[in-house]
Amino acid sequence: MSKSVNIMLAGVGGQGVLLASEVISKVAMEKGYDVKKSEVHGMAQRGGSVVSNVRFGEKIYSPIIAEGEADILLAFEKLEALRWLNYLKKDGIIITNTQKIDPLPVANGKEKYPENVMDKLEKSGLKVIGLDALSKAREAGTQKAINTVLLGALANEIDISKDLFEKVIKESVPKSTIKINTTAFKSGFEAIN
Fold this sequence. Notes:
Elements: E1 5-12, H1 17-30, E2 34-40, E3 49-57, E4 70-75, H2 78-83, E5 88-97, H3 104-107, H4 117-122, E6 127-131, H5 133-140, H6 146-155, H7 162-172, H8 178-192
Parallel strand pairs: 1-4, 4-5, 5-6
Antiparallel strand pairs: 1-3, 2-3
Helix pairs in contact: 1-7, 5-6, 5-8, 6-8, 7-8
């Protein structure tokens, strides 16, 4: 592998963005890549935006993904996909949960949630993979498994085996949630496959 793979994860506090970025990092390390990760989670505990950059390849010098350099945007909420769209390359891929979570300005009535977010993403000309990760997570046993549903979808788009993802997920989640998380991962993988 000569080029790097740049994955930007974006969501709302409490959706498991940081665990997902940790899983991707560990998977890439186990595959033998140099990995760098960065995260911003300022007001995450209050439902604010959470962003993580994961870069891996033969040699990575910086964890930061510049605008126009992300190969994949893994969005845990559709408005977050729209917010970070400009970070994708021209041939980038958006994998997004179609769930709507009102940001604080919308929740307190100061702003309106934008209409037709998925249509706007589709009009970007990029490959858009939208899935109802919330429903799939609930079917697996808990809405907290949104992150592993999205990791399943991601596993279809990068050259790292599904089995390695499952192994790392089992090592990274609490033992009592392994079955739920592996079921959620498979659900996300099969939704795209």
